[in-house]
Amino acid sequence: MRYASKRWFSVFVLPTFVAFSIAFLIPFIMGLYLSFCEFRTVSDANFVGFENYIRAFSANGDFLNALWFTVRFAFAAIIVINVIAFLLALMLTRGIRGTNLFRTVFFMPNLIGGIVLGYIWQLIINGILYNYGYSITSNATFGYWGLVALSSWQMIGYMMVLYIAGIQNIPTAILEAARVDGATPLRTLRSIIIPSVMPSITICLFLTITNSFKLFDQNLALTAGAPAKQTQMVALDIYNTFYGRVGYEGVGQAKAVVFFILVAVVALLQLYLTRSREVEN
Q: Would you say residue 192 lies in a domain?
């Protein structure tokens, strides 16, 4: 039986590996090489060394500004999304009436595309700000908090479902024993619920970190980087560099490589820290 499984293993894995190589592995390797080249198309690439990386960090400071704005946005969005999602999960696991309806309603924004959400929230925010003579692009602060609100509204329901799954996996005997021993709700939350849902916390933090850093379509639709690129996130800056400036394709590719390394390091560090907490708990 084991021999038969090994014999057919490669047959079943091969199609997936070929698709993975064509869709991800080969383009990734080519993109890494092209970040060291000056090119218009893939066929006319000329190797220029680290020149693209130097230009990425020195050209008018757009990349560093976008990187700083992205970090600030991600920090706020990660906290808001996870805190509210966890609180909603706690409330919706208390056996209140209409729980399934509330779960569906909170989850639905995650099904709407980012471009559509961006334009919807632009209309909502501008509808409020126009009463005071402003628009979302009048001030970078409006765009910043607009992006935080949009991202939170879209992601909270999805994270809530993951937290609910974690809370529902806690054995009821443990919670009942804590209640019998006289543990307060806050003590139960701190000593039992949070340690028990650490796997869900790990997943939710990973998803919110990566999604917050990679945000593109919502940023494009809501502010498009206005005013004066002050609300331009890294993904949008890479897009504008690659497609918006002739001769800067290599610079845009270099920015993409730097961005990939940054997100990978942050995500892997978060996984290491939260998984170590899982083991301790």
A: yes
- Nearest-5° Cα angle at 107, 104 to 110: 145
CB-neighbour burial class of residue 89 (10 A; exposed 0-12, middle 13-18, buried 19+): buried
Query: Does pTM surpass 0.85?
Result: yes
Indicate whether 16 belongs to any domain. Answer: no
Q: Which H or E element spans position 162?
A: helix 140-168
CA distance 222 to 89: 29
Name the nearest CA neighbour of 222 among 153, 131, 133: 153
CA distance 238 to 233: 9
Q: Contact at 8 Å (CB) between 249 and 39?
A: yes
Q: What are phi and psi of 172, to 5 degrees?
A: -65, -25
Residue 56: domain span? 52-280
User: What is the Cα–Cα distance from 31 to 37, expressed in whole angstroms?
Assistant: 10
Per-residue pLDDT tens for 68-114? Answer: 999 999 999 999 999 999 999 999 888 777 788 888 888 898 888 88
In a domain, 82, yes or no: yes
Contact between 232 and 240 (Cβ < 8 Å): yes
Integer-rounded Cα radius of gyration of the chain: 23
Residue 104 inside a domain? The answer is: yes
Question: CA–CA separation, 72 vs 266, rounded Å?
Answer: 14
pLDDT in tens, 135-189: 999 999 999 999 999 999 999 999 999 999 999 888 888 888 888 888 888 888 8
What is the three-class DSSP state of 214? coil
